[in-house]
Amino acid sequence: MGNQSTPSNQVSGLTDLSYVIAEVQNELNDYSPTQRQRLLGLGISILRDIRIYNQASIQVAYITVNEAGVVELPRDYIDYIQIGVKDHGQLRALTLDENMLIDRSESCAEPTREMTHYNNDNFYNGGFFGLYNNGIFTPTYYGLGGGRNSAYYKVDKTANRIQFDGRLVNQEVVLLYKSTGISPNTAFGWEVVNPIKSGIHYKRIEFDLTVSMNMKALLKEEYNEEIKKLRAFTQKFTLTEYMDVYRRKKKQTQKQ
Amino acid sequence: MTRDQFVELIRRNLQGSDAPAAIRGKYSEREIQLYSEMAYNDMVSMLGEEANKTKDYSLMDSFGKAYKRIIKYDSERDEKYLDIEVQIVPLRDNAGVRLVSPYKDQSASFDYRDNTSRSVFDTLLVNVVDNTPTYYVESQRIYLDDNVNKDLTTIMIKVIPLFSALKSEDEILIPGGENGQVFQRVIELIQNKERHPQMYNNSGSSKQI
């Protein structure tokens, strides 16, 4: 079969903002030390936008919920992707409860809120296998409405935390969330280089009154094009993956 | 050509028949030296402006001279700095300072920041994603930030010294094709003085325009 190891003489599959700035300086033919810091500042803001709107930097946090059913959001949290619990190697999502009361009361810097446990509409607390429908016990899940779960959450972003109610195994939740990924080790794939680069080219002249409007329009258009390419790259899937998803949802039943 | 040769050449030119009759042989060597200095600094300044437009800094680099400097510590301000020790041509973006880097590694050169931009760049997280040391210029000192390696002691600076800061045997650079312009510039400066003496002599009178 020959050598199956990956070639060792290739550059890394990830790069960083310093590389992008070097490319921008090269394109501008400006190698002076005076612009680099400004270009870096612009690069950071563009990378942040890309992370929020186009290609998320996904982080995962395994967090223990306290007795009040409250967890602090991670420092770099921007938005959640999934909130759930571990379930046989999979993430089982919990349910959003918009009606949950936001309770920020504290005593001696400890939250005084109490976690509410649901007793009836719970699939996962053991023993439940049916429901009362208009007073008649129905020993199946049939007719049971959706949106029920073992535990529920509500994000209180202002207070930088999530509240939980219900039952949680080991009081542990898994939070899959978006982060800007901006850190001393900020790294990203090469597909993000061109969008950041074209964004910097546009942003550096956006408020320069000496630059013509059509030049600005051209650079903005190029930036938007690069963002579209990035989105296409990020959202692409293989034929096998598509077929797997398609077939998983299909089953042989009578036609309606 | 050395600095002294440069001045002597201009002096001879001004005394010779090439110079306009009105100024021919009228100025002492000391005066000519001062005018030469002005012409030289103007030329560097023009090249700086040109380089900003064309992004071609090669001529600016040719004017630069390298010096070895030791990092010092200002305990009152809690900042590292180094003494420039030579007067530099004031240019936009402090382009008179061409390079600040570790003495043995010019590829690891430091970035320039305006003094007042430091807090903005810090807020913009530039320091978080990039630890390239930065510097700003204050009078005759270059101040460095905390990203400078603690073990680094010697720094290379390349700066464009003022004409007056050059030694008599220091080489003078005149860009190719610009030789005649330097003489022309000296003559223009002198003629300008003849026409507008108030620009060059300030008696302190408030009536002076």
Explained architecture:
The complex is a heterodimer of chains A (256) and B (209). Chain A is of the alpha+beta class. Chain A has helices at 17-28, 36-53, 193-203, 213-235, 239-249; strands at residues 14-15, 57-64, 70-72, 77-87, 90-93, 95-96, 106-107, 110-111, 131-133, 136-138, 151-156, 161-166, 172-179, 188-189. Chain A has a four-stranded antiparallel beta sheet, with no helix packed on it. The mean pLDDT of chain A is 86. Chain B is 34% helix and 18% strand. In chain B, helix 1 (3-15) packs across helix 2 (29-54) and helix 2 crosses helix 6 (179-195). Chain B has two domains: 3-58 and 167-195, no CATH class; 65-159, no CATH class. The A-B interface holds A 16-18, 28-34, 36-37, 40-41, 44-45, 182-184, 186 and B 55-57, 93-95, 99-100, 109-113, 117, 120-121, 124-126, 128-132, 134.
Strand order of the largest sheet of chain A: 2-13-4-5
- Across the major sheet of chain B, the strand order is 2-3-7-6-5
Q: Helical residue percent of chain A?
A: 25-40%
Quickly give the structural class of chain A. Answer: alpha+beta
Backbone shape of chain A: extended
Note the beta-strand portion of chain A: 15-25%
User: Would you report the number of β strands of chain A?
Assistant: 14
Q: What order do the helices and strands of chain B follow?
A: HHHEEEEEHHEEEH
Which radius of gyration of chain A do the C-alpha atoms yield?
25 Å
Helix tally of chain B? 6
The stretches of 5 or more residues of chain A where confidence is low (pLDDT under 50) are: none
Q: Give the SSE order of chain A as H and E letters.
A: EHHEEEEEEEEEEEEEHHH
Q: Largest beta sheet of chain A, briefly?
A: 4 strands, antiparallel
Number of helices of chain A: 5
Beta strand count of chain B: 8
Helix content of chain B: 25-40%
N-C termini distance of chain B: 40 Å
In round numbers, the mean pLDDT of chain B is: 83
Q: Largest interface, by Cβ-Cβ below 8 angstroms: which chains and how many residues each?
A: A-B, 20 and 25 residues
Query: How many domains would you count in the coordinates of chain A?
Result: 1
